[in-house]
Design goal:
The structure holds 4 protein chains of 4 kinds. By secondary structure, chain B is mainly alpha-helical. Chain B is 74% helix and 5% strand. Chain B contains 12 helices and 4 strands. Chain B has helices at residues 2-53, 58-96, 103-123, 132-159, 168-191, 227-249, 251-261, 263-268, 273-299, 308-321, 326-350, 357-375, and strands at 198-199, 209-216, 219-225, 301-302. In chain B, strand 2 (209-216) and strand 3 (219-225) form a beta hairpin. Chain C is of the alpha/beta class. In chain C, strand 9, helix 12 (317-323) and strand 10 form a beta-alpha-beta unit. Residues 5-63 of chain C have low confidence and may be disordered. By secondary structure, chain D is an all-alpha fold. Chain D has helices at residues 12-21, 24-44, 50-68, 73-94, 96-121, 130-144, 147-151, 163-185, 190-210, 235-240, 247-274, 277-287, 289-294, 299-325, 335-348, 353-383, 398-412, 420-429. Chain D is globular, with a radius of gyration of 23 Å. Classes of the chains: A alpha/beta, B mainly alpha, C alpha/beta, D mainly alpha. Chain A binds chain B through residues 13, 43, 47, 52, 84, and chain B through 386, 389. Chain A: This is ABC transporter related protein. Chain A: InterPro entries: AAA+_ATPase, ABC_AA/LPS_Transport, ABC_transporter-like_ATP-bd, BCA_ABC_TP_C, P-loop_NTPase. Chain A: One of its GO terms (molecular function) is L-phenylalanine transmembrane transporter activity.
């Protein structure tokens, strides 16, 4: 069943068409990768899905409903969460607080309850804390929960971002280059973690990634963007042998060396 | 071959000169456009409102039209005041993204230096014998030097140690600096012959230029501009030109722009960031000092607290025009000046005296600011920046 | 022995009082009894205000009453050595803005008080009476003033306060002084509310807006003014006096072309454009000299030649310094008498300049007088108490002081604490700061403060 | 570019001493003795003097010492109640000055906490905060005095008993104005926001000056006097207990306790908000708007809420302030006041509630007590022959000192006296304490 259907998405900045008529369908419970050379429009595409940009054309349906006109916070509240290419944690909040912020949409305590700090609030806060701890254990950060986020090592920051995204009980999680800047060991751990996201928590995962080994090893489907256009789609086997994909990648590489 | 190369070199040079001229003079054109535009728009509004009101009292229309040219001149002069101070704000903001709250005081110091120079010249009996242009040049150069160095010194002492702190920290330091400067100048002024309220002596510039004379009833209302105001406007335009040249056509300007874009990268490119920031303060302070001298000369008095309100207004003007943008600062100042002059002159006329125009000029200025920023959050000439995610 | 001395002093004081009374009638016939015009104010009963206008040069006789300093010396001479020894520390406080943009005026007040105390201490050197000075900065902020007032009140050595510059600050501080029965004598607050709010401890040695404004209006009418443009500085002082001027001017049939307020301090071009269009015979400016100076200069530069009238906030040589030749045709109303009648004022101006560098701003001489009246009351109370007096005793002494002449005029206090009767003078200015105290007296109006 | 050196951890003699004095039996003894001695000195020296000034400051520092100490909560609360609930008010009956300073410090502490919600928590720079204070103050002033009759002809002032209701109304109207300001400015970034809020503050002040015409709403520059005070319901009880106090003393006590109560409530409310989903959302917005919105935090609603909550405290405090002062006029609500509240927040420690309170108390003390006293000492020294130029009277240059202090503080302790991060770090060092320690 399709969890997310992006159909004929187009986004133009000034004269530049960043995303051109891209259609993408993501089935519930799958792991999908979006790949492409730098500047291919992948992050812009993510930004459209999460509501940060409004598409000039096309529609996004999430969980059967159109979300194209919604604000980012409304989309996040419906169960689509993301991480950022350049990590965007809340640097001066603790690790635990970062996860609690991710839980914002699930906390319903009315203003007066907060002021009175009554039983129902304490109950809710307690539950939120327990759940945050559980998520931190899931990503392996529970022992660092009282550190400030900015003091975490790089790899931990990536994992914290994932934990924060998970805090909103998302159906779909968009990971923007989750292993960028990681060493091979960390990348292996991250691959493992992404797989566990789906296997243990049933979250559908879409990721933008440059590390082909990782992409090939965990993705069930791969879409390739180049110059804002989707040039190929399919499983690893199909993509590896697609001539246009090879051209897009090698052409670019050749351009670099020349 | 050689000749050909020479020709193309000459061509290139000519092209470059043209380019430079364009970048330097285009803002002046933009500025004139805004002056004419604001005057026209506001004038039109006045005429339309007066037309509707004149049904009940025909005198309103007469008076409104009769004072209109003078109001426009008032607005322009006032606008140039805000504009010249705003230049310094915008320079510093452009480079450091920091509101230099003490800039109003730098402006005030310039005014005091000018008054001091004039006082000394008068004591020596030179004030009436020197050609006026020499007097103005001496006063402005002195004012620029002292204010520029002072601004540089304040940066060194109060802002540089805080450069990597959260944004609010240098702001508070600047507010502290503003209090300190006010009182230090007061201390110096009250111990000197100038006194708290110092008179700004000037050579006799003569009567105001009579531009026209508009009949109102049996009388004629003169349209005039004082020679001092003309000097003010000319000097302000020269300042804009010079600043534009400096920022857009010199190596120093390129370095300043580079530091403004990205301090870390600029320093990697071999630019001495500290030095450039110091120079930025020097230039901004010197502009403020020149504005102070011109303002003091125009008004006739200076006092240690005169910088605060014009400083605020100038900052408003800088924001209105798009802070960080040099022409924007000028344009913002002009628009603000026109607005205040129009409200001050017309509000009580149009409301039959119920609302005193001069009292509501501030409110009008700030309301327009809020309105403009709602529809153009980046200011009149500011570039809209899409946040990179 | 003690009794004999005090008896002698008492006799001496009475004699001089008699002499003073004797000389007053001698001087008054020379003043032309003039049109009695009722002073108007919201709270003023028409009949109570008897005004005498059109003083002539001949009115300048020597001041009738004993001077404050003479009084202080005479009274202090009656103090027993034991009483003098028992005085301990006695302080007079001053409260005025010493920082911020009103500090020029506030400092003038402070300096005036300091000079008065210093000179009195020198004069009293042998008598064992020495008074200390405690200046406070009210920052022109009501709540700072009231906090300072509590500070002052909690220091039992302070027996009298001179203050404030802003009537808003005074009104905020008066409850605190009043709770402690501490005398507050104001050198600058012309706002009627100061003495109309029922505080028994409030005094002033300046006129009232509800008299000063109307007297200005009457002067305007007499000088043939048909139309007036009223400007004020949007402060309680400037707007207050301007409003009273307006009420009276309208009553007298002068056309008020506009009533505008501005807190603009330097560039008056927009207002001047309107004035030029309105073409008034007179501009009335309710405000102070730092604004009036540039306003005048810019107006004259533009060729606006209307008469210019303002309240006592213009009474400073600084105005002449700032405005220079533009002062032509400028008048101000004040209760400070001309120097020809009170020569000590000239001495004061010199002393001030010597000690503090710069001319005395408005209300500074009044501050000097306020402090002198404080001293007079304190010394009187000390003689009565035969030792350190209480604040209540100082208050009582202040109320019972005879008419004494300071450097700005002869004052006794009405039931409410207003100077009684106040003489209002209208001066025309001259443009040389050094000759400010020779400003020409144009008109003189006696006016008793409202009593109901 | 050198980074500011990180603050050295607790080493050195002073810190060891500090640690020893705030823990264990030594701590109990020390704090008890401290309270006892300063209280005794205050009560036996009620006259305003340099000595009493110093003791008073030391006495107030006690509260800080109590807060910083690591002793039994019951002991800490008990000591604070004794000091603020009994000693200080009793001292206030002996000397009206110090308790007024304490009351004003409390007023500013509330304002600073309110502004801290906007600037410290949500990261929205507000330079016009005093406007909300003005709204509250004018609200009660207009409705409790005959001024209401000038505004609406025939209307009569509400009775004194309405005071308490008006605190609530002030709270709500303040909040409403906060939303009104917030709505148009939400799209603006940092410095644009600063200038617009500054403009808003000025507009409110200028309106207060000018709205005596055409309808007299605020009485303009003349201000409003004889503002009503609430009935002294507790006077008979005090009398029965044998305290013979006049009305002024009673009112001073009343406002002291009233302000203290509001400070406590504000602390509680702000502290609870801070550690709730709302506070976390504000902090998230401050740290990174884009990331915050990606967590489902509604930016507009949360920013508006920050403006409203911050403004409501100022509105409520305005009502109390007007009633305490009896007289208000527009200069009280000028830009400098906004700036000085902001400086309290930043000097104390942006975002940290105890820090902000400390900042407010310190700046108020400096302004009303310490700087005047220093100036007086300098003046006395000058009279005694210290070489200070004739034209320099230290009483006139308190602001200069304040400005210098601001600059020096920012250079040497830019994060404020009690910064937020340090506290976190501290908590981390002592993991046995709960994370959400009631701040």
């Amino acid at each position: 069943m399709a969890l997310l259907e992006a159909s004929n998405i187009t986004k133009v900045f000034g004269g530049l068409t960043a995303v051109n008529d891209v259609t993408l369908t993501i089935d519930e419970g799958s792991i999908v990768s979006v790949i492409g050379p730098n500047g291919a429009g992948k992050t812009t595409f993510f930004n459209i899905l999460t509501g940060i940009y409004k598409p000039d054309k096309g529609d996004v349906r999430f969980n059967g409903q159109s979300i194209a006109g919604l604000r980012p916070d409304q989309i996040a509240a419906r169960g689509m969460r993301r991480t950022f290419q350049n990590i965007r944690l809340f640097p001066n909040m603790t690790v635990l607080e970062n996860v609690l912020v991710g839980m914002h949409t699930h906390l319903r305590a009315p203003f007066w309850n907060i002021l009175l700090r009554n039983r129902s609030l304490r109950l809710e806060e307690g539950k939120a804390r327990d759940k945050s701890r559980e998520l931190l254990r899931f990503v392996g950060l529970d022992d660092k929960r009282d550190n400030l986020a900015k003091n975490l090592p790089y790899g931990d920051q990536r994992r914290l971002e994932i934990a924060r995204a998970l805090a909103g009980d998302p159906k779909l999680i968009l990971l923007d280059e989750p292993t960028a800047g990681m060493n091979p060991n960390e990348t292996v751990e991250a691959t493992h973690l992404i797989r566990r996201l789906r296997d243990e928590r049933g979250v559908t995962v879409v990721l933008i990634e440059h590390d082909m080994r990782l992409v090939m090893s965990i993705s069930e489907r791969i879409s390739v963007l180049d110059y804002g256009t989707k040039i190929a789609e399919g499983d690893g086997q199909v993509i590896r042998s697609n001539p246009r994909v090879i051209e897009a990648y090698l052409g670019k590489a050749a351009g670099h060396h020349g | 071959m050689v000749a050909e190369a020479n020709v193309s070199k000459q061509n290139l040079q000519r092209q470059r000169t043209l380019q430079t001229l364009r970048t330097v003079f285009m803002p002046l054109g933009q500025l004139l456009l805004f002056i004419v535009g604001s005057a026209a728009v506001l004038g039109l509004i006045v005429v339309v409102v007066a037309f509707f009101l004149s049904r009940s009292d025909p005198k309103i229309m007469q008076t409104a039209i009769a004072i209109l040219p003078q109001v426009m001149i008032d607005g322009m002069v006032r606008g140039f005041l805000f504009a010249t101070i705003a230049l310094g704000y915008t320079m510093v903001y452009g480079v450091l993204e920091f509101i230099n709250f003490a800039h109003g005081e730098i402006f005030m110091v310039g005014g005091f230096v000018g008054a001091g120079v004039a006082y000394l010249l008068m004591q020596w009996g030179l004030l009436s014998t020197l050609p006026w242009i020499v007097f103005i040049v001496i006063a402005i150069v002195m004012g620029m030097t002292v204010s520029g160095l002072l601004a540089m010194a304040t940066e060194r002492v109060a802002y540089r140690p805080l450069r990597n702190s959260p944004r609010l920290v240098p702001l508070i330091s600047a507010i502290g600096m503003s209090l300190v400067l006010q009182d230090v100048v007061r201390l110096i002024a009250t111990s000197s012959p100038l006194g708290f309220n110092a008179r700004f002596e000037t050579p006799n510039f003569g009567k105001p230029f009579q531009i026209a004379s508009i009949p109102l009833g049996e009388r004629a209302i003169p349209v005039q501009i004082s020679p001092k105001a003309v000097i003010f406007i000319v000097a302000a335009m020269l300042m804009l030109l010079a600043l534009n040249y400096l920022v857009n056509a010199t190596r120093l300007g390129k370095a300043i722009r580079a530091v403004a874009q990205d301090r870390a990268t600029a320093s990697l490119m071999g630019i001495n960031v500290n030095q450039i920031i110091s120079l930025t303060f020097l230039i901004g302070g010197a502009l403020g000092g020149a504005a102070g001298v011109l303002f003091g000369m125009n008004i006739g008095t200076v006092n240690p607290y005169m910088g605060f309100i014009p400083g605020l207004k100038a900052f408003t003007a800088a924001v209105l025009g798009g802070i960080g943008n040099i022409t924007g600062a000028m344009v913002g100042g002009i628009v603000l000046g026109f607005l205040e002059a129009f409200v001050a002159s017309y509000l009580s006329l149009f409301t039959g005296g119920a609302f005193s125009g001069a009292s509501y000029a501030d409110i009008a200025a700030f309301s327009i600011l809020i309105l403009i920023l709602i529809f153009r959050p980046e200011g009149l000439l500011g570039e809209s920046t899409t946040q990179k995610v | 022995m003690k009794r004999i001395v005090s008896l002698i002093v008492l006799v001496g004081v009475l004699m001089s009082l008699l002499a003073a009374c004797g000389s007053t009638p001698a001087a008054s016939p020379t003043a032309a009894p003039a049109t009695a015009a009722p002073a108007t104010a919201e709270a003023t009963a028409e009949a109570t205000a008897e005004a005498t206008a059109e003083a002539t040069e001949t009115a300048e006789a020597t001041p009738a009453a004993m001077t404050v300093v003479e009084y202080i010396l005479a009274t202090a001479a009656g103090m027993t050595p034991e009483a003098a020894a028992a005085l301990g520390t006695i302080k007079i406080a001053s409260q005025s803005p010493l920082s911020g943009d009103q500090s020029a005026l506030g400092t003038g007040i402070r300096n005036g008080v300091e000079l008065a105390i210093e000179q009195a201490n020198t004069a009293l050197a042998g008598s064992g009476v020495e008074i200390a000075f405690a200046p406070f900065d009210d920052q022109a902020q009501p709540e700072v003033g009231s906090a300072n007032a509590k500070n002052i009140v909690s220091d039992p050595d302070i027996l009298c306060t001179v203050g404030h510059l802003n009537s808003g600050v005074a009104l905020a501080s008066l409850p605190d002084y009043s709770n402690a029965n501490l005398v507050m004598i104001s050198p600058a607050n012309t706002n009627p509310k100061i003495t109309e709010s029922g505080y028994a401890n409030a005094f002033r040695v300046v006129g009232r807006d509800d008299l000063q404004g109307p007297i200005g209006a009457r002067f305007a009418q007499e000088s043939g003014v048909k139309t007036v443009y009223i400007l004020h500085d949007k402060t309680d002082y400037g707007q207050g006096v301007a409003e009273f001027f307006k009420l009276e001017a309208e009553k007298l049939g002068i056309e008020v072309l506009a009533f505008e307020g501005t807190d603009e301090k330097s560039d008056f071009s927009s207002i001047l454009t309107n004035i030029q269009a309105a073409n008034p015979d007179m501009i009335y400016f309710g405000g102070l000299y730092p604004q009036a100076g540039p306003l005048l200069r810019q107006a004259r530069d533009r060729g606006i030649m209307a008469q210019f009238l303002g309240p006592d906030g213009l009474d400073s040589p600084e105005l002449a310094k700032l405005a220079g030749d533009a002062l032509e045709g400028t008048f101000y109303t004040t209760v400070a008498a001309p120097v020809s009648q009170f020569p000590n004022a000239a001495q004061y101006a010199t002393d001030y300049t010597t000690k503090f560098n710069g001319a005395a701003p408005p209300f500074s001489a009044q501050a000097y007088d306020s402090a002198a009246f404080c001293q007079a009351a304190i010394v009187t109370a000390a003689v009565e108490a035969n030792g350190k007096p209480t604040r209540e005793q100082v208050l009582a002494a202040m109320k019972s002081l005879p008419a004494l002449s300071g450097i700005t005029g002869t004052y006794s206090f009405s039931e409410k604490g207003d100077p009684n009767p106040a003489t209002y003078y209208i001066f025309s200015t001259n443009s040389d700061p050094a000759l400010w105290d020779q400003n020409e007296l144009t008109s003189k109006i006696e006016s008793a403060p409202p009593t109901e | 570019m050198a980074k500011n050196p990180p603050h050295t951890p607790e080493t050195g003699l002073w810190n060891q001493l500090n640690a020893w004095m705030t823990k264990g039996p030594a701590g109990y003894t020390f704090l008890s003795l401290y309270t006892l001695i300063t209280s005794a000195l205050l009560i036996t020296n009620p006259r305003t003097s340099l000595f009493t000034d110093i003791v008073f400051v030391l006495f107030l520092l006690l509260i800080l010492a109590i807060y910083r100490s690591r002793l039994d909560m019951r002991f800490k609360v008990g000591l604070a109640v004794v000091a603020l609930g009994f000693v200080l008010p009793y001292f206030g009956t002996l000397n009206p000055y110090y308790i007024d300073v304490a009351t004003q410090a409390g007023i500013f502490a509330t304002l600073a906490m309110g502004l801290n919600v906007v600037v410290g928590f949500a990261g929205l720079l507000d330079l016009g905060y005093v406007a909300f204070y003005a709204v509250g103050a004018y609200l009660w002033s207009i409705f409790s005095t005959p001024q209401i009759g000038n505004m609406i002809s025939g209307a009569t002032p509400v009775g004194e008993g309405w005071f308490y209701l008006f605190i609530i109304i002030g709270l709500m109207v303040g909040g409403l104005f906060g939303v009104l300001l917030g709505l148009p400015v939400l799209r603006l970034r940092g410095d644009y926001l600063a200038i617009v809020t500054l403009g808003f503050g000025e507009v409110i002040r200028v309106l207060a000056v000018n709205l005596d015409k055409p309808i007299n709403i605020t009485n303009g520059a003349q201000g409003i006097k004889d503002i009503e005070r609430p009935p002294l319901f507790f006077a008979p009880a005090l009398k029965a207990l044998g305290f013979n106090l006049d009305n002024n003393q009673l009112y001073q006590l009343f406002f002291y306790f009233m302000v203290l109560l509001v400070v406590l409530i504000t602390m509680l409310v702000v502290g609870r908000l801070k550690n709730s989903r709302i506070g976390r959302a504000w902090t998230a917005i401050r740290e990174d708007e884009t990331a915050a919105i990606a967590q489902g935090i509604p930016l507009v609603r949360m920013k508006l809420m920050a403006f409203a909550v911050g403004a409501s405290f100022a509105g409520a405090m305005g009502v109390i302030f007007a009633s305490k002062q009896l007289f208000i006029n527009p200069p009280t609500f000028d830009l400098l006041r906004s700036i000085s509240i902001l400086s309290m927040v930043i000097l104390g420690g942006l975002g940290n509630i105890p820090g902000v309170i400390l900042g407010a108390v310190l700046v108020t003390l400096l302004n009303l007590q310490i700087l005047p006293r220093i100036a007086e000492i300098l003046r006395t020294a000058k009279e005694a022959g210290l070489p200070i130029p004739q034209s320099f009277d230290p009483t006139q240059y308190q602001r200069l000192l304040f400005g210098l202090l601001m600059i020096l503080m920012m250079i040497f302790r830019p994060e404020g006296i009690l910064p937020e991060d340090r506290r976190r770090q501290e908590l981390h060092d002592h993991d046995d304490e709960p994370v959400e320690g009631q701040a």
